[in-house]
Design brief:
The protein is mostly helical. Helix content is 62%, strand content 9%. It contains 8 helices and 5 strands, in the order H-E-E-E-H-H-H-H-H-E-E-H-H. The strands form 2 sheets. Strands 2-1-3 form a 3-stranded antiparallel beta sheet.
Length: 303
Amino acid sequence: MNRNTVVWVVVFGLGAAGLAWRAAGTGMGSQYVRAIEVHAASKTGQQFTWTRYDDAFPKDRGQPDVALSTPRTLGVWVAALMTLGAFSFLFGDNPLFKLTQAIVIGTSAGFAVCVGFWSTVVPMLMGRLHPEFVRSWAAPGMPPDQQTEWIALVPLALCLMLLWRLAPWGGWISRWPLAFFIGLTAGLRLVTFFKADFVDQVANTILPLAVMADGRFDPWATLKNLAVLAAVLATLAYFLFSVEHAGAMGRAARLGICVLMITFGASFSLTVMGRISMLAARLQFLFDDWLWLIDPLNRRTGL
């Protein structure tokens, strides 16, 4: 083994030994639940009883109705190791990061397929073609007056044509439904983006230059509207390439550049703050829920 491999093996070995020692001594990462018996009655008067498991604090372990939840504990450990696997990319590409990446991508793809099947295929395709069959095994809450809609055969045919790409011949058949879906999506998105990115922005720019509030002149609101108007005109002046950027037009274009830089900076900083919030959440999960190193609510008193 080369030097880097030896270093990684030593680091992972020491880390695993430290985690095992701390887990054996403190029970870190353990999740406890409290069993609550629930009683309910249906509209016909039939009684039902089941047990609900709510989260319990580790300091309450040992109580008669509190027990260790093996699935939830295993979930915390898996989530923590996956987080560390993602963070390991900071030290370079490594097998642990590749394994974590493959698991996350595969799990996300499988989850998306399951959600799409039960939220789209079953109710919107199968439920329209054969409502009685779907109601009997998948969707008992489907309206009893649901009738067969033969128009659903059109999306079924398009889906079958799309899957034709997997066949050894006739792959060109899948291009027709693909073109239809792309064109339809582009047309719908065009209307949405045209309203959000053009119509609404133009409407928000049409502001009164002199603001009157309760019969009085409002200087601050007027100044804000003038600043918005000046920023919009300066930005448009920068993108007006049919006129030479010299003199007053040049000064307006330079002001437009400043407005653009402020806008891009604010947008980038908002993105960075969002990522920092995600990082803080993962670190809090690691140090609190998994390692039990911090406990602001004093929930684990008595460990």
